[in-house]
Design goal:
17% strand, 8 strands, TIM Barrel, 259 residues
Length: 259
């Protein structure tokens, strides 16, 4: 797949969750068929960070983010952070992520999540990369950490906050990424946010293999379906999908430095 400027970028997928190289190659081929020109594969642990970098090195259309998800914060030690710093310097690593706080499932204690989030914010500052933020039921603490560490560049992935929080995110000059949940029948709040957020601050994602958009709910999600997210946003904004394509591609360039 060439690095053309048109089409769409899936700004957040977990390609390593699809398993073998042969399965991933089929996923990438289907993305090509749907004019998805680039995919950022996102890590959630040190192990998946290694895999993300490996996939980015192997496939021209794939870029990587490295980091530890809040669910796995208890696994982080000083050696983990050293390895993440080393991986972050690989040429096709474009962000630190996904990192953040998750007070919904609480797979790691809150204090541990907060410590690891802040350590990775400092890492992002050190290596001069944007952050991909996971925020679930932790708006105030996530925002507090970003402000404390002077984090200036990043995206709130799979945005799930309300309109007031979206305004705060935009005021910090962060991007907001919309996932397949915007196509769900009960997407009232998110649909309103998709209409509200200016095109200059929007990204689209699948979070595959999760959150499969309508009408494919029940199937495993994959990057090819990011087009359904873009089409829904275009419908909500009453614009042509080509405008969503153009703006999100430009936003990918500005945020992640991917030409």
């Amino acid at each position: 797949m060439g690095k053309k400027k048109g089409g769409l970028t899936d700004s957040h997928a977990h390609l390593d969750f699809f398993g073998s190289d042969s399965k991933i190659e089929k996923v990438l081929a289907r993305a090509v068929e749907n004019d998805v020109t680039r995919i950022i594969t996102i890590a959630d642990s040190l192990e998946s960070s290694y895999r993300a970098v490996e996939l980015a090195q192997k496939h021209s259309e794939v870029y990587a983010a490295v980091g530890v998800h809040p669910h796995n914060a208890s696994d982080v030690n000083p050696e983990t952070l050293k390895e993440l710093e080393r991986l972050a310097k690989e040429p096709k690593v474009v962000a630190i992520g996904e990192i953040g706080l998750d007070y919904h499932k609480n797979h790691s204690p809150h204090l541990v999540q907060q410590k690891v989030f802040e350590q990775q914010l400092e890492l992002a500052k050190k290596v001069k990369l944007p952050v991909i933020v996971h925020d679930r039921d932790a708006d105030a603490d996530v925002m507090g950490a970003l402000i404390k560490h002077g984090t200036k560049k990043g995206v709130f992935h799979c945005f799930s906050g309300d309109l007031a929080f979206a305004e705060k995110v935009l005021a910090m000059n962060f991007y907001i990424s919309i996932a397949g949940t915007v196509t769900f029948k009960n997407a009232g709040v998110l649909a309103g946010i998709a209409k509200f957020v200016p095109l200059t601050k929007l990204l689209v994602e699948t979070d595959s293999p999760y959150l499969t958009p309508h009408p494919y709910r029940g199937r495993k999600n994959e990057p090819a379906y990011v087009r359904l997210v873009a089409e829904k946003i275009a419908e909500l904004k009453e614009i042509d999908v080509s405008a969503v394509e153009a703006s999100t591609q430009e936003n990918i360039r500005l945020l992640f430095g991917i030409a």
